[in-house]
Design a protein that fits this description.
The structure is a homotrimer of 265-residue chains.
Chain A: E1 3-8, H1 16-27, E2 32-37, H2 45-51, E3 64-68, E4 79-86, E5 89-96, H3 102-107, E6 110-115, H4 131-144, E7 168-169, E8 175-182, E9 188-193, H5 194-199, E10 207-210, E11 213-216, E12 230-234, E13 239-244, H6 249-253, E14 260-264
Parallel strand pairs in A: 1-2, 1-3, 3-5
Antiparallel strand pairs in A: 4-5, 4-6, 7-8, 8-9, 8-14, 9-13, 10-11, 10-14, 12-13
Chain lengths: 265, 265, 265
């Protein structure tokens, strides 16, 4: 069965997600539909962009990923379909051209994209406020059922990209960065990757400073810390995170999104 | 694969939804099971009834929709299966006969329904508090796998219907209505439809009064307003709603369910 | 299609669940994937253990149930696959050997289990903090697609079991117990089963004392009480629970997990 995943800020209370799935199944009856999340913070393109590289590459080649975080719906922002080429094959992305694909696009070897201009693949007339249901869902289902990329519209060579703050070196040979996401457990994930730490020779012996906390060294697992103790480790996405063993670091340490942290030798 | 959707007030923490799906798959192994929502306000028949017309018609003909909001479970309220006939084919509804299907039933061209009285299609003996698992799920799965409507019980000609407040004309040629639902984004959806506005000649030039707000005109998209500005538009269900561009109208404007609004020329 | 269910404390905001499903589908393409819940209280093994017997037996024989509540991830706690034998056939469990399967294991007639030591069925190298994605998901998918139990590792004869408080007899012929779980509706489910009440001859005429409340008799359905009244009944899992008709008993009566209750004649 073709796979279509859904990532939105639609929440779980309303009819929006259910309507999209009905349209998917009406166009392409035998689908594996997977919910990634519908609880992205409303209209938060950055959080959506950061999530996708932790999802898309784990799906089989050929899978289709619909992402709808769309504050500009109904304006002249373009809709698009994009093929991302990875070493093990292509994945497909469908959604607004508003930068939501920035990070996962950077991970791909190459890409090809088209703007969605062909109404014969839409529900018509499309609502001006719900392109998820009326444009992105039917386009994704046609794609999953075999329609070629070029059929959906003309080439889109310059997908919009968001700018993300990158970690910066300090005068003393360390790095500064900030907290990009806080997960369900309260683990605070930074924008400093294991590759950054390795490149600056910081991975083996380092001190993490965040707020009033100083954490020595990078642990391998949560269970290496004492229960209730704060720790730094490399999370499952390959980024430095601050956590509390058996606890919620964001709440206990008062960490919020965007807070700076410094890595020193 | 036959499609069965689930709409309940069971929440997402407990075993209830998982148990229902196990029963579905035990009766009819190859199903497309779709969650619409499990976060309806507990025992809120009106919200459930208003959701269904935004979901059911988007699914393919033949799809089965199970709805369990069931404060009277175990009492003498009837269970039922209903076939709704639409221009593009039938959809099936399974759940308690407590009015939860009122609005979607009004949208259908015709219907046929039976009361659930045949225990051979149930888990036996059924729990007196969880008919979702023991009666509605197995009945829906048998239906999806091909059992005929008449096999489940005798005809039920008079399904219970809820009364909904309709918009009322004002002495000055306007309309009064109220807010029926508030969605995940804080958009406040009224009971005044685009058809009502057209019938009263109000669509082109109108003022919406709600609380202390006065909004001039109906916009086509959220993005036509300035960021942070309040606006009125016709939402994706065809009803007038009050929103804030890039914001939460219910929170910012202090709007709650049931609040009246007035449309004037 | 083989069935794999997922029960975790991962929440619904992050990429974790989506990544696991991608791995499942990459290993075994045609699956029926079912979410039981991802909202278990973080790292709460007891709540997870109590949920499973209300889920697993309702699924068809042969179904695979992945459970990831895993505070000890990356430590020397073992991973495992377990076959549980029920009267109507086997079910399979995959997850950490930390006691999370205690209660459903007690309901089975017999079992066989192995420790997960064979990396050829994992994503390699596995993250030290996310075995759900890198070990449990691929093992479950291989199992669902036909790999034999013995291939995953050596026999594990002594799965870890949690101790649960059992109801105790009182000097006057009653029983004391406590509240184990509070569901989405605020119904407060105790550890006293209908079998306990029958064994002590308490089922027909009893008084339930909890906090300052005294409830006479066991009702059959919520609808037998007046709206807003407190009541005791036997819930759909076969345990005594305290509820409020059309209301939230935990909130209104101030009941929390662990609170003691006493059954008297």
């Amino acid at each position: 069965m073709p796979i279509i995943t859904l990532t939105t800020d639609f929440g779980l209370h309303d009819a929006y997600v259910g309507a999209m799935k009905g349209v998917l199944l009406s166009v392409c009856p035998d689908l594996q539909i997977v919910d990634i999340t519908h609880l992205l913070p409303p209209q938060d393109l950055q959080t959506a962009a950061l999530l996708l590289p932790d999802v898309v590459p784990y799906y089989p080649a050929g899978s289709v990923h619909v992402v709808v975080v769309d504050p500009g719906v109904g304006s002249d922002r373009r809709g698009m379909v994009m093929r991302l080429d990875f070493a093990d094959g292509p994945r497909w992305l469908v959604g607004p051209d508003n930068g939501v694909f920035t990070v996962v696009l950077d991970r791909a070897q190459s890409f090809d994209a088209v703007a969605l201009t062909e109404p014969r693949f839409w529900r018509n007339p499309p609502s001006s406020t719900f392109h998820g249901r009326d444009i992105f869902a039917p386009v994704a289902a046609h794609l999953a059922c075999g329609v070629e990329l070029g059929a959906f519209g003309p080439s889109l060579a310059d997908p919009l990209r968001l700018a993300f703050a990158m970690p910066q070196p300090t005068p003393t040979g360390g790095l500064t960065g900030n907290i990009l996401t806080i997960d369900h457990f309260g683990n605070c994930v930074s924008n400093i990757s294991v590759a950054d730490l390795t490149a600056y020779g910081l991975l083996e012996t380092l001190t993490v400073k965040i707020g009033t906390q100083q954490l020595q060294g990078v642990l391998r697992t949560y269970s290496e810390a004492a229960s209730g103790a704060a720790l730094a480790l490399i999370g499952s996405s390959g980024y430095l995170e601050v956590a509390i063993r058996d606890g919620n670091a964001a709440q206990v340490l008062g960490i919020s999104r965007g807070m700076p942290l410094t890595i020193e030798r």
